[in-house]
Amino acid sequence: MKTTSIRKAMVPAVAAISLSFALAACGNDDTSSDNGSGGSDSSGAASGLSGSVAGGGSSAQEQAQSAWRTGFGQDNPDVKLTYDPVGSGTGRENFISGAYLYAGSDSAMTDDELADAKKTCGADPIEIPVFISPVDVIFNVEGIDDLQLSPETIANIFNGSITTWDDPAIAADNPDADLPSTKIVPVHRSDSSGTTDNFTDYLEKAAGGAWKTPHSSDWPTTSGESGEGTSGMTDAVKAGDGTIGYADDAGVQGTGLGVAKIKVGSEYVAPSADGAAAAMAASEPTSGTPDTVITYDLNRTSDDPSTYPIFLASYEIACPSYDDSNTAAIVKGFLSYMISENGQKAAAANAFSAELPRDIADKEQAIIDQIS
């Protein structure tokens, strides 16, 4: 099976994209938070704005971003928003370089990235969760329609210790299944991916020491089968027999791939938006972050079967101020729409995500309101 590569990573040169007005890099000009550009409606979205703003990053956000652009565009038909689903790592890089004015990331920025983003923005950047989604363990194995896996078994499949589908560990998780002796072909993301970071974070925390590598947006080896982006992952898993991979739930819908149930406590749990939301509710905010940053230490080890522990809290990254007041108004209005009730319902309908708890959204809105 050939490695699937769907998208090439964006590079800082993307900043040369022609826009209808001069897009300034993030700055710290002290313009008024009331930009005088359009009003707002009950949805939390600004209206009557015009101009163009480029963003990108998380491929898990792709379908949610589509819904957000559509909803925001209904009140702002003269705004052109672009979002390139190039992966979380490239999204963060392009935001820091100034190529993107906002970015989506399925994992929080590191301390070094926060410092670099502060230089780009001229102040601490904004980083807030906007999208909560399960991450599915997907498979394509002739003869297997239903699959149950414990955290230790998943880790040993992806670290190469378990090599065939009739392995005793898989049989123990699936006592009633007639498992084939097919060779297991694990598939990982080839790009720097927040989905990979969340998946390996789960393995590191929940697999009882079976996963030896610290969690990372980059897969620990370049060998083996891989796919770029969410669609590259699902295409790679579909392309062979015996394959197994991981992808956000929205990207799996409609692919026909099998989705494993994951052992949580004494039960096996299917991925769901409600399960991801419950796991998010059981997670603790990260301590010591700037006032403009809301990130979480995600709970992967709950024994409560109402939770689904393989999930991502996907963040939006922006600057607290921009050199151009029109740019500031668009970014401020678009982020406000993302976290509004209407925006969250649109994402849930289009991307099968969980809606943000309103108390978290209210805290985020107070941060967004400071954009100037």
Automatic annotation (TrEMBL):
Keyword Chloroplast on entry: no
Compositionally skewed regions (Low complexity) per UniProt: 42-52
Disordered as annotated region, ranges: 30-81, 210-231
InterPro entries, sorted: ABC_phos-bd_PstS (IPR005673), PBP_domain (IPR024370), Phosphate-bind_PstS (IPR050962)
Signal peptide: 1-24
Zinc recorded as keyword: no
PBP domain location: 49-341
SUPFAM superfamilies: Periplasmic binding protein-like II
Record keywords, A-Z: Phosphate transport, Signal, Transport
Family stated for the protein in its record: Belongs to the PstS family.
Record-linked NCBIfam families: 3a0107s03
Protein name, entry field: Phosphate-binding protein
Source species of the chain: Nocardioides panacisoli
Taxonomic lineage of the native organism: Bacteria, Bacillati, Actinomycetota, Actinomycetes, Propionibacteriales
